[in-house]
Amino acid sequence: MSKEYQSGRLFRYFFIITAAIIAIASVWVTNTLVNELKDEEHKKIMIWAESVALISTQPEFEGLQEEEARAFYNYKEHLVKIIQENTTIPVIITYDSGEILDYKNITIPEQNSDSYLKKQLKKFADKHDPIVITIPLEENENLYQYVYYDDSTVLKRLRLFPIVQLTVVFIFIIISFLALTASQRAEQNRVWVGLSKETAHQLGTPISSLMAWVEYFKTKEIDPELLGEMDKDVQRLKTIAERFSKIGSNAEPEPMDVAIAIGNAIEYMGKRISSKVMISTDLPDEPITILMNESLFGWTLENLIKNGVDAMDGQGEIKIRVFQKGKKVIMDVSDTGKGIPKSKFDTVFHPGYTTKKRGWGLGLSLVKRIIESYQKGKIYVHKSELGKGTTFRIELKT
């Protein structure tokens, strides 16, 4: 695997891990605040319940001295103020029998108010244990009342905040990751196009010179067979330069028989690979004509064949099978090489990915670009088994 590709993967992992840490830390802080507010509300409702109990047990003012009456009056006003200041926490007070005595901070509907209150009471009981109010009566008897309460609106909203926060952070991570990926892909495309155009430009001058030399040698007494082979190689260089020049441009497709395109690619590669590699085909009897740019399509097949030869260490079999499935033309290119782990099925098409010590890892990336951008098709690893081989599948529209 190339250092450039590995660095790109590490950067993506670092970005994802950093974003996850930020999200977790943010949620932890929010949960801490929620728990603190919950404890604070519990303390407030305890004080409120005690105030209700105390105000229910205060004696009347008759028979008290003026200063005592004033002190009791101020004390009672203080308790009333505590009770009235609860404007956020919903509460329901019941008798020991379960009958509802009073409620506060609950909006009651006009219809079915009793059943609504009972539902709220059950909801409060499921959420918090009730607070018991003990009111002393005569002859050592006590009256017990129960205060049921719910979380305030602020606390409920704050409980939902981590979910909203995680959603926002998740959306931010996705958008940022897609933007980063798109930016990297655009940069790769610019490098692809620039490198291809420059390569075609640099090849143009020596190829023109070689073509002129071939024409010159034809006027001399030189072995025609040797000149023929030389001319083929020069024409091949010209084809390669044309391929590079078409990267990044709108290559016009033309109707072409798939079998002929495959045959041309095999004929070229057959003379340039090991004699221990056998290339076989399984083609339909009827011709299948699709729109294609033969030069770029041939480049695709050559790369797949070369990739298979490398995977087999120059010894094995490559099989090309073509068939129609609905409105699609399916092409399987299989080898008997080392195979690809399932976890690498998508990775092999990434620019820079390679298992060889030499090379930039651009072959399969180039194949994917040609099939998807110029042929409007699809390529993927159809199946692979370690030690037995790999099948690449190309899907093209008829």
Mean pLDDT: 82
Q: How much helix, percentage-wise, in residues? A: 55-70%
Show unreliable segments: none
SSE succession:
HHEEHEEHHEHEEHEEHEE
Strand order of the largest sheet: 6-8-9-11-10
Rg on CA atoms, Å: 41 Å
Task: Note the total helix count.
Answer: 8
Strand portion: 15-25%
Give me the secondary-structure category: alpha+beta
Q: How many beta-strand runs?
A: 11
Task: Note the main sheet.
Answer: 5 strands, mixed
CA-CA gap between termini? 36 Å
Note the overall shape.
rod-shaped
Can you offer a commentary on this structure?
This protein is α+β, with helices and mostly antiparallel strands and about 400 residues long. Helices cover about 55% and strands about 20% of the residues. Strands 6-8-9-11-10 form a 5-stranded mixed β-sheet, with helices on one face. Strands 2-1-4-3 form a 4-stranded antiparallel β-sheet. Strands 5-7 form a two-stranded antiparallel ribbon. Helix 1 packs antiparallel against helix 2, helix 1 packs antiparallel against helix 4 and helix 4 runs antiparallel to helix 5.
